[in-house]
Design a protein that fits this description.
The protein is an all-alpha fold and 61 residues long. The protein has one domain (2-23, 30-60). Helix content is 85%, strand content 0%. It is built from two helices and no strands. It has helices at 2-22, 30-60. Helix 1 (2-22) packs antiparallel against helix 2 (30-60).
């Protein structure tokens, strides 16, 4: 589960950076903005869960 979240955070972050820096924002449709928002929420959520899991494991040791 940890590896899956790490992959989501890394790949999602790279995709978001690529999208934001290679396309013209004024041409985007509402559907594209929705997809970008969904990926952003997924990346942030997975990153938060990773941080939380590492904190729990650290306290157990």
């Amino acid at each position: 589960m940890l590896l899956q979240r790490l992959i989501i955070v890394i790949m999602g972050s790279l995709w978001l950076l690529w999208v934001l820096f290679t396309r013209y924002r004024s041409d985007w449709t509402a559907l594209e903005w929705g997809a970008i928002g969904l990926v952003s929420i997924s990346v942030l959520s997975s990153g938060y869960e990773l941080i939380k899991e590492k904190g729990i494991k650290k306290r157990e040791e």
